[in-house]
Amino acid sequence: MKPLLFTLKAEPDQRLDLSPLTPDRLVGRSAKEIETLSIGTTRESVTVGDIFKVKLGDATSVRFDGGSDRFDLLGAKLLPGFEIHVEGDVGAQLGRAAKGGTITVAGDAGPYVASQSAGANIDIYGDAGDFLGAPLAGEIPGMSGGRVVVRGSVGARCGDRLRRGIIIVEGDAGEDLGARAIAGTIIVLGTAEGERIGYLNKRATIVLSEQRELGPTYVDCGAHNLGFAKLFAKSLAAESRGASRLLSGRLQRFAGDTAVFGKGEVLLPA
Fold first, then answer.
1. Torsion sign over Cα 146, 116, 163, 267
2. What is the pLDDT averaged over residues 217-232?
3. Nearest to 263 by CA among 166, 182, 170, 156
4. Burial of 183 (0-12, 13-18, 19+ CB in 10 A)
5. Is pLDDT above 90 for 43?
6. Exposed/middle/buried for 89, CB within 10 Å: 0-12, 13-18, 19+?
7. Distance between CA 77 and CA 167 in Å, rounded?
8. At what angle do helices 241-248 and 227-236 cross, to 10 degrees?
9. C-alpha dihedral sign at 172, 205, 92, 79
10. Is 13 exposed, middle or buried (0-12, 13-18, 19+ CB in 10 A)?
11. Helix, strand, or coil here: 109?
12. DSSP single-letter state for residue 180
């Protein structure tokens, strides 16, 4: 059965809150009922019917034909068993607080992807903005489960306060990668900018694809053939061949950040 289809009529003239358009909230609704849902974020009223042409289908799967960097909160609080595909760009907070499910974006995504996500699998085929997996201001933990793969590059503070889950970046990462991470795994196949990689990292694992200098609070523990890394590599082969190859090799382990617990680590090719 074909998915429930939203076809973009024209670029919106204001930011949109697309959190009502997750599959679990659309099951059992008619096209007319969906078209009357409010998605505007200003005093000017905007409904789904003003922005999209709606074609009913299997509501467990939702497809957006056409995207915009003004599509905020797409896939927010998504539940397991549902999926969303966007043929274009999306705005801020993609997959915010998602409990599960699958989100695929063919273009770029804005800041705060997977913020406080607890179990969704998110694939972004373009770039992602700052604070991927990070909490919003005033919140303590960031992403707490699931998996995010970005085929392009990400902005600054990727994995900030990451609590659990896997983040794979196949391009480059901005400054302060993995800063304040609590736990979880971050893998970067390109270049990581800045000098504060893993700053105040408590228990997270950060894997980089190139040799580089780390801060003085990281301790060199030598080169190892890590058994768990090879098992992990096998499990990631279908998600990212590059990440799988990186973890399959001999790795130099640096323990830290010793400025806090010191139970985290940065792994580099040996």
1. positive
2. 94
3. 182
4. middle
5. no
6. buried
7. 19
8. 170
9. positive
10. exposed
11. strand
12. T
Which residues are within 8 A (CB) of 161 and not within 5 positions of it... i.e. 6 or more apart? 134, 135, 140, 141, 142, 180, 181, 182
- What one-character-per-residue DSSP string does 37-98 give? -B-B-SSS--BHHHHEEEE--EEEEEEEES--TTEESTTTTPPTT-EEEEES---S-TTTT-
Q: How far is CA 50 from CA 7, 53, 62, 98, 206, in A?
A: 11, 8, 18, 26, 44
**29 pLDDT exceeds 80?**
yes
Q: How confident is the model at residue 47 (pLDDT cuts 50, 70, 90)?
A: very high
What is the residue type of 216? Answer: P
Give the H or E element holding residue 147: strand 144-150
Distances (CA, A) of 168 to 112, 138, 240, 241, 245: 15, 26, 8, 11, 13
How many other C-beta atoms can be found within 10 angstroms of the C-beta atom of residue 210?
11
- Give me the phi and psi of 7, to 5 degrees please: -105, 125
Q: What does the alpha-carbon distance between residue 91 and residue 2 come to, in Å, rounded to a whole number?
A: 25
Q: Is the pLDDT of residue 58 over 90?
A: no
Q: Under DSSP, is residue 202 helix (H, G, I), strand (E, B) or coil?
A: coil
Read off the pLDDT of residues 98-124 as tens digits, 9 standing for 90 and up. Answer: 999 999 999 999 999 999 999 999 999
Q: Give the DSSP letter of residue 114.
A: T
Pairing, β 219-224 against β 251-256: antiparallel
The two tokens of residue 252 are 């130099």
CA distances (Å), 33 to each of 3, 36, 83, in order?
17, 5, 21
239 Cβ contact partners less than 8 Å away, ≥ 6 residues apart: 147, 149, 168
Q: Residue 173 is encoded by which pair of tokens? A: 């990462």
d(CA 165, CA 137): 21
